[in-house]
Specification:
A two-stranded antiparallel sheet has the order 1-2. The longest helix is centred in the last third of the chain and has 4 residues. The protein has one domain. It is built from one helix and six strands; from the N terminus they run E-E-E-E-H-E-E. Helix content is about 5%, strand content about 60%. The chain is mainly β. A hairpin with a 2-residue loop joins strand 1 and strand 2. The mean pLDDT is about 80.
Length: about 80
């Protein structure tokens, strides 16, 4: 795989994911089962975990300049 820090070896793993966004007074929660993620094989491959396209591909994304945020809508 390739990340912000360059290429790294990864193995596929299957996880259940819960995403919560709390912007008072709105609270949104998505639960997605059986998402396949690429996880670095070497322990020091990434200093910081990041959300990548393996999760973001499940959502329709839009940028709201007026609200000052990126909005996700569950697409599947």
């Amino acid at each position: 795989m390739r990340g912000a820090g360059g290429p790294f070896r990864a193995a596929p793993v299957t996880c259940d994911v819960a995403v919560v966004d709390a912007q008072f007074p709105e609270v949104t929660c998505w639960e997605v089962d059986d998402v396949v993620f690429g996880v670095p094989v070497e322990e020091d491959a990434l200093e910081i975990s990041v959300v990548g396209w393996d999760l973001l591909r499940l959502f329709d994304l839009s940028v709201s300049h007026r609200k000052g945020r990126i909005e996700l809508r569950f697409a599947h």
